[in-house]
Amino acid sequence: MSERIIAEGVEVALGERLKSARPMGGGCIGEVHKVELEDGTPLVAKVDREGESHLEREAYMLRYLREKSDLPVPEVYYGSERLLLMEFVEGTSRFSEEAERHAAEFLAALHDITSTTYGHERDTLIGSLNQPNPPMESWTGFFREHRLLYIAYFAQEAGRLPMVDRRRVEHLAERLDDLIGKPNPPALIHGDVWSANVLAQGNRITAFLDPALYYADPEIELAFISLFDSFGNAFLDRYAEIRGIDRAFFKNTPRPLQPLPAAGPRLLFWRRVSRFGAARIRPVWVLNKNPRRAAHTVTKYGPECEYL
Q: What confidence score (pLDDT) does residue 253 get?
């Protein structure tokens, strides 16, 4: 069934014939295949037989990043509800220090792309979860309503967040202004930078995959990277050289950033609310990452932190 969908899409969209399609690992939505055309050209195809994964949104996000930024993302050749055809990019998710610095340069440049409001012109996705993006001038208001409480609602609807924990999330939401402080201006973020979503060859980054873009305080991107250990000291040091990192983000900010600076209250906060969202998107990864501390997060979708 999937191969037939791919073959039809290749012929209609590209005027080419399919030679082979084999399953690949990765991807939170749809089935992922490495495709070879009869002329030998490799592609990646994502297939959603039921048309429920919103593959057209992923196509939109990739095209938006290619148009608005210099972030390397795969070129989209075709996108619909059931099929996404895109460029195959060589690389692995293992990063040298030089590759980490290269990633920092790309993301710092991405975060220099600004907007007058937080959110985006349309809803996007993170993994398989809809990501509402109504434009708002207040970062805390946006994050409260359309990230923290929104995820809590879906977690409760799924039976994974008891009412007592829902109330704890709501209590946290009431305190966001004090916890976050003065936000940074709206900046374009990738939104899902964990190691499997970045490819490198040698010391160079070749692609960022599976975006979950919107305009946000870019600190949340750094916290997400910290949560998933996507990159280390070399990334932070280079990023800080280019854009700076607010001292309030860390307890201390030595120059250069060696060793990794201790997390301050704001970074701890962003990490933990990001963990809350991550448990909704990829609970198995969070559990394997730190089974003891993540158990409450995964089983109840409740942030395991002192802020609640």
A: 39
Residue 218 corresponds to which tokens in the numbers above?
């870019």
- What are the distances in angstroms from CA 121 to CA 91, 131, 133, 226? 32, 12, 7, 28
Question: What residues make up the domain containing 19?
Answer: 2-87
205 and 282 part of one domain: yes
Count of domains in the chain?
2
Which residues, in sequence order, are CB contacts of 292 under 8 Å at separation 6+? none
End position of a domain, from candidates 57, 87, 117? 87
Q: Is 92 a domain residue?
A: no
Contact 167, 99 (CB under 8 A): no
pLDDT at 281: 43
pLDDT value of position 273: 60
CA distance 183 to 177: 9
Whether 79 contacts 44, CB under 8 Å: no
224 and 273 belong to one structural domain: yes
Per run of 10 residues, the mean pLDDT along the chain (length 308 residues) is 90 93 76 94 91 86 98 96 95 97 98 98 90 96 93 83 86 86 94 95 97 95 88 94 84 43 53 55 37 28 33
Instruction: Note whether residue 191 is domain-resident.
Output: yes
Claim to verify: residue 19 and residue 80 sit in the same structural domain: yes
Task: Write down the pLDDT at residue 267.
Answer: 55
CA distance 94 to 74: 18
Asked if residue 140 and residue 25 are part of one domain, the reply reads no
Secondary structure of residue 186 in the 3-state scheme: coil
